Amino acid sequence: MSKSSEDDQDAQCNDDSLAYEQAQAGMPAEDPLAAIKTMRLEQLAVCRLKTAEEMQAMRAETVQQSLKLSLEEIHDICCKALRACGVSELNAESIARAFVAAEADGIKNVGLSYFVDYLQCLSNGKINPKAVPKVSQTGAGSLLVEGDGGTTMAAFDVAFADFVEAAKSTGIAALSVKNVHACGVLGYFVERIAERGLVGQAYANAPAMVAPFGGMLPFFGTNPLAFAVPVAGRAPLVVDQSTSTTAYVNIRAAALRNQPIPDHWALNEHGQPTTDANVALAGTITPSGGYKGSNLALMVDVMSAGLSGSTWSHAAGSLTEGNEQLNLGQFFVAIDPLHFSGEDFYLQMQDYVRVLEESYGAYIPGSNRLEQRRKHQEQGVEFDQGLIDQIQGYIANPV
């Protein structure tokens, strides 16, 4: 997942401001690292205080009635809310489809609860509601999309047909997206690539919330990567995971419910493990697998922000606060198996998955997601009434 810290943009430290910060804090100039850490942590505590207070206020309102909506009804309410926020038709349809897919697959932490964050950003201009992404084909197998401050969903949709055609004609194609907001479910995009018979890869960066291995200050985003492969006789095999131990939205949800979190998820402001979600909001998320996750987060930052010319995770602003656009990046790769192993590839993958599951008893990535999809297509999705009321509020008060 790519959702990260919303409130740490004002805590950015750099060499140009170090001397001033030391003088203001009365810190000795000979200890610049301590100065940076102390000021950074003080700033983080202040800017996250608002989040903790909001969680306490929201917690008092969490006892809600529930209701069930079909996928078609979810799509309808999403489109209405997006139009109420001034979103153009092209952008509205792209965004709505992605959020419906998240709810269909049971990925609720980046479903309609995250959609509300999108509506806020679209309303205040942090996301350009009328973005017109521009596609440039820079080579036979390379494309670049300038997202115009909008969403990955719209940018990807505008380039998708050309991207697939480039992969099928050359064997491998790459699509780089720049100047967009956080992408939501990265697996949504690679699954669409795999549905065209191609192997898909994706990388996405996000605002800093994760301490690098050995550090205690946010530098990386949750920086997810995703992979999808077509398999004969079944839906594509999809792997979608962040390079952090968990997503920021999971910690925020735990704080809302006043529930503890596992002690390996996050560090407090002093760099120590914590089980208190509210304390974690003022600290950092840990990288998945220690130095391995930290290394992967670095690679994702380079692939997504570096190759697209977007903003590095540590320099990106708040995910929701203010109206500064984030200029995040993503990088997608599509590979046509017909140019390599040939037509047998899809049946080989079918046998591979069968052996992995039946002979070795392994869980196949995405199996629960597909089961949730079947269930929700038949039975609809259950929501707290309060969440739907929030969305209806945007519909009732168009910008």
How does this model look, in words?
The protein is α+β, with helices and mostly antiparallel strands. It has two domains: 66-124 and 381-396, Malate/L-lactate/L-sulpholactate dehydrogenase, four-helix barrel (Hypothetical Oxidoreductase Yiak, Chain: A, domain 1); 134-365, 2-Layer Sandwich (Ribosomal Protein S8, Chain: A, domain 1). It contains 13 helices and twelve strands. The chain has helices at 15-25, 32-59, 71-84, 89-104, 112-124, 152-170, 186-194, 248-256, 277-281, 291-306, 345-359, 367-379, 385-396, and strands at 66-69, 134-139, 142-150, 172-180, 199-204, 225-231, 234-241, 266-267, 273-274, 284-285, 328-335, 381-384. A seven-stranded mixed sheet has the order 2-3-4-11-5-6-7, with helices on both faces. A three-stranded antiparallel sheet has the order 9-8-10. β6 and β7 (234-241) form a beta hairpin. The two termini are 29 Å apart.
Number of helices: 13
Strand content: 15-25%
Helical fraction equals 40-55%
Main sheet summary: 7 strands, mixed
Average pLDDT works out at: 88
How is the largest sheet built, in terms of strand order? 2-3-4-11-5-6-7
Q: What is the general shape?
A: globular
CATH H-level homologous superfamily name of the largest domain: Malate/L-lactate/L-sulpholactate dehydrogenase, NADPH binding domain
Number of domains: 2
As residue ranges, the low-confidence spans are 1-33, 59-63
